[in-house]
Amino acid sequence: MATAPFIHARCLYSPQISSCKQPPSSSSTSPSCSSSIPSSSSSSVVSFSSATNSGQRHQGIGIQAMNTITHGKSIAGAWNSKNEPEHLLVLVHGILASTSDWTYAEAELKRRLGTNFLIYVSSSNTYTKTFSGINGAGKRLAEEVKEVVKNTKSLKRISFLAHSLGGLFARYAIAVLYSPDAYNRDQSGDQANSIKEKPQNISFFKGGTIAGLEPISFITLATPHLGVRGKKQLPFLLGVPILEKLAAPIAPFFVGRTGSQLFLTDGKANKPPLLLRMATDCEEGKFLSALGEFRCRIVYANVSYDHMVGWRTSSIRRETELSKPPRRSLDGYKHVVDMEYCPPVPSDGSHFPPKAAKAKEAAQNVPNAQNTLEYHELMEEEMIRGLQRLGWRKVDVSFHAAFWPFFAHNNIHVKNEWLHNAGVGVIAHVADSLKQQEASSILAANL
């Protein structure tokens, strides 16, 4: 195996896209996602070659890493003479979990990233607090982050790494923490970096802050971005229609408000569910604008054996966009089998049309298989349309060859070092992605 390299993941900086073709069917369908392979230049931290499958995906990575060490210090340390942390990395756990979920990842990230990072494990939503709703948990997380920033004056940049439900908490929190920069709106921005919403004439431009810091990376691991309604979105229900039908009305009794939000049945029938609101900018928060401020957004998704979160919802894809994944791991990252960059898809964003309100009312009051399927298909398409207005790097993970593949949901973040250590390659991949983005941001600031 090759030594783990930096990963070139320039998600928002005009990556060269090959073989990205718009399907002829409809404007709401996303284009084919392509491998992002920037050419080597003086500003690049890393250059690499990649064997691809029809020009679409990374099957392996050949490393040609540049030397980022200056007199025994990292590139960050070379410009940080006081050796104080400048980059806050917030780790957010999932449902019914605690800070102990990150024991291995925290130690490994500290070892790999060095003292320029302050790695903070969120503790504001432990165990049953995760049942109180995504919005409530997101607000608590935001207050927690504000306190950390207030007490650490040296911080300049911020990133998030979240597992499972924690990814939705983090998405809500960044909207609470978001401040647009009214003085830095470059109207000549690259179309790959901004998508204009025609009716409202809204554009996504960099320049805003999260908790007063420069947003760098937003990374989720097995997060149900589209909720858990629908075919095989909650795999332990085995795709059985009767079980999927019963899960929605029962969920709130077991996991509170969070359950109804995940199943998209929260709120009044004539109001969009929370997860749909979080796929756009609305009165409740600038959810999409906050996400758009990050240099890089990466979703890691289990392609199989995840009993909690399906591949489609964790990778923000339609059913038709799922293809058979490679079985061979990328060099240096065991069980990481695929990586692709999906550029922004122009659209007028997500909506809650009248027929969606009727479908939601039917799903709430008469939750039969037909009603719930129709409603979820409508909501899933609208959420995807909203979220795909931003570019995403999508990393597929497969534990099919692991000793305990059915632990995929906990393997992906190495919840327990001994039981779930199949995921160490994923954490290595995350660390190298963070490291590369950190180096890129520092180089850009010092050019």
TrEMBL record:
Domain of life from the UniProt record: Eukaryota
Domain DUF676: 83-313
InterPro entries, per database record: AB_hydrolase_fold, DUF676_lipase-like, Lipase-like
Spans through the membrane: none
Disordered: annotated span: 16-43
Pfam families in the cross-refs: DUF676 (PF05057)
UniProt-listed PANTHER family: LIPASE ROG1-RELATED-RELATED (PTHR12482), LIPASE YOR059C ISOFORM X1 (PTHR12482:SF11)
Protein name: Uncharacterized protein LOC107482246 isoform X1
Organism: Arachis duranensis
